[in-house]
Amino acid sequence: SQQGEEDPQALSIQEGENATMNCSYKTSINNLQWYRQNSGRGLVHLILIRSNEREKHSGRLRVTLDTSKKSSSLLITASRAADTASYFCATCQTGANNLFFGTGTRLTVIP
Amino acid sequence: ETGVTQTPRHLVMGMTNKKSLKCEQHLGHNAMYWYKQSAKKPLELMFVYSLEERVENNSVPSRFSPECPNSSHLFLHLHTLQPEDSALYLCASSQATAAGSPLHFGNGTRLTVT
User: Parallel, antiparallel, or unpaired for β B109-113 and B10-13?
Assistant: First the structure.
């Protein structure tokens, strides 16, 4: 399949803990992106990492990319109840323009 | 609030109805997209318009008909839908000049086909 696959499908943690979500994909990519979706809303772009980058930070978010393993991880540090949402990875394949999304990880942060 | 506005937010229609979904973006982007989101399935790319021309149609049934009159507006015309078409329909926009540009999504239209 073209899209990335997130793991785990669901994750429940206590407020203040770190949350790690993983994404695996099958083809070579230009970039990989992470999005967040609150219930009943649209997706919001969080961070983009290019194929020649290994790690990127944005606030409490840290994204890693391992192109040899075709995988990425999203780490949310010091989680808050407001981080409760679904998180999706999206890949832009080499030579293509469009993004392909996975089924997402449902994160619940318990206050 | 998101720069991409979709109307209506909710729509219930019978299988013989004709309705349209509307999307408007205020970000100055020149590419617009329709995605379908069903429970426990990956987001499904339906249509892509770049510079107001349709550049991709991922084998979507003809009962879905897109229209892009200008770079700020996108419509999805619906006709004789099936119950399995019930889903959240998301519109997105981006700058078409760079491959894999980040997408800006609207909040979607929740469609229920009865």
Answer: parallel
Interface of B with A in 10-29 (CB under 8 A): none
Contact B86, B9 (CB under 8 A): no
Task: Give residue-wise pLDDT tens across range B54-109.
Answer: 877 778 999 999 999 999 999 999 999 999 999 999 999 998 767 788 999 999 99
Whether A80 shows a pLDDT value over 60: the answer reads: yes
Chain A within 8 Å of B90 (Cβ-Cβ)? yes
User: How far is residue B65's CA from residue A69's CA, in Å, rounded to a whole number?
Assistant: 40
Query: How deeply is A99 buried, as exposed, middle or buried, from its count of CB atoms within 10 A (0-12, 13-18, 19+)?
Result: buried
Q: How far is B100 from chain A (nearest CA, A)?
A: 5
Name chain B contacts of A41, Cβ cutoff 8 Å: 107-108
Kindly tell me the sign of the dihedral angle through the C-alpha atoms of A38, B50, B11, B113.
Answer: negative
Q: Which of B45, B99, B102 sits opposite A33 (nearest CB)?
A: B102
Cis before residue B8, ω within 30 degrees of 0? yes
